[in-house]
Amino acid sequence: MNVLISRVEILKLVAHPARITILGELSKGVKCVSDLEGFLELSQPNISQHLAALRRAGIIDYFIDGKLRCYFLKNPIVVDILEILSKEYSGDLPGPECCPTTKKGTYPGKRDGNV
Amino acid sequence: MNVLISRVEILKLVAHPARITILGELSKGVKCVSDLEGFLELSQPNISQHLAALRRAGIIDYFIDGKLRCYFLKNPIVVDILEILSKEYSGDLPGPECCPTTKKGTYPGKRDGNV
DNA sequence: TTTTAATATAATAATATTTGAATATATGAA
DNA sequence: TTCATATATTCAAATATTATTATATTAAAA
């Protein structure tokens, strides 16, 4: 239903320590709620709340196995986000080349402190 | 200084419509605040606040050109995030193959509705 | 040197997110 | 049937984020 939720909304939802941890686990395979209770130092209701939010946004889904709900990743964007989160970056982006132009003004001027 | 801010914190900061728009613009080149006032239907102080938050986190930086502050991207993760946000994804991830195992239980059971 | 343009900062109000506590539901077992 | 287990839902309190308004800063221009 809510497949309309924008990418930024998805990013926002994913950008939470508990939810990233959950998604990281699910990226390794299906997990039920009590499996997740192992890793996360969160109450069961809170974990369920995070799972429900992720599911409402179409980011994960589950199948039912008896008393268990077995969650798994659904939205492929998650894989890419997780990859970025563990990627190594070397240094900052190169600063602007000399004399870039903005609509209102022109370089050069004093560069700020921490560059 | 705050280079310690974790990746998830960066993700969280970036996951805001105004800030994503700002970063998208900066990814095309240096922009000063009043340039940004063009695109964004936000007050000048609010734009400055978003810029300040992004700068505190080391995501962007600026140089000074007279009365202007010319902002540019600093953290390379932004480029990857922007790329993901405009990437095309075709369909959902494949569901779990038959009979994956969770610690607590085993497939199969009823699959949930929207798969 | 006063004024103006560009931008930043501070304080607050409005709103959203997060967690915790209590309770509900559903399923398999006894 | 009743019970226990696994999980979800609801509501409220605590907290964080966001936008607004007013004011401050800084540098160039007049």
Q: How would you briefly describe this protein structure?
A:
Chain A has helices at residues 7-14, 17-26, 33-39, 44-56, 77-86; strands at 31-32, 60-65, 68-73. By secondary structure, chain A is α+β, with helices and mostly antiparallel strands. The first copy, chain A, has a domain at 7-84: Arc Repressor Mutant, subunit A.
Topology, pairings included?
The structure is a homodimer of 115-residue chains.
Chain A: H1 7-14, H2 17-26, E1 31-32, H3 33-39, H4 44-56, E2 60-65, E3 68-73, H5 77-86
Antiparallel strand pairs in A: 1-3, 2-3
Chain A binds a DNA duplex (30 and 30 nucleotides) through helix 4.
Instruction: Please write the string of helix (H) and strand (E) elements of chain A.
Output: HHEHHEEH
Strand content of chain A: 5-15%
Distance between the termini of chain A: 46 Å
- Give the full name of the CATH homologous superfamily of one domain in chain A: Winged helix-like DNA-binding domain superfamily/Winged helix DNA-binding domain
Overall 3D geometry of chain A?
Answer: elongated
**What is the arithmetic mean of pLDDT of chain A?**
88
CATH class of one domain in chain A: Mainly Alpha
